[in-house]
Amino acid sequence: MSQENQSVLFTPKGLNITTKIVAFYAAFYIITSIVPFLTGERESNVLMPDNLYTPVYFIAAIHAVVLLISVVTLWLKKQSWVVTLFLIAVILACRFAYQEIANWVYATF
Fold this sequence. Notes:
This protein has helices at 12-39, 41-44, 54-76, 81-96, 98-108.
C-alpha cells in the first residue's frame, strides 16, 4: 500500500489527531464535572445528598490522569498507538461502567 492510498487514520498525523481528541474529551469532562462545584449548585439544593457528586469527581480524576498522559505524549512528541488506545479504553470503561464505578465509590468513600 502506498502512502497515497493509506488511510489518514493510520498515519502519524492520524495518531496525533486521535491523541488530541482524547485530550480534548478528557478536558471537556473535567470542566463539565467541576462547574456544579464552582457555581455552588450543590449548596442551593438542600435535598441533595452530600456524596452525590463523589463518583463524578472520581471519574474526573481519572480523566485528569488521561489528560496529563495525553498532553505529555503530545508535548514530547512520543505518541504511540498503544498508549492512545489504552487511554481510549480507559475513557470507554468509565463511560460504560459508570454505575459499577459509582457503586464502588459510594461503598468505599
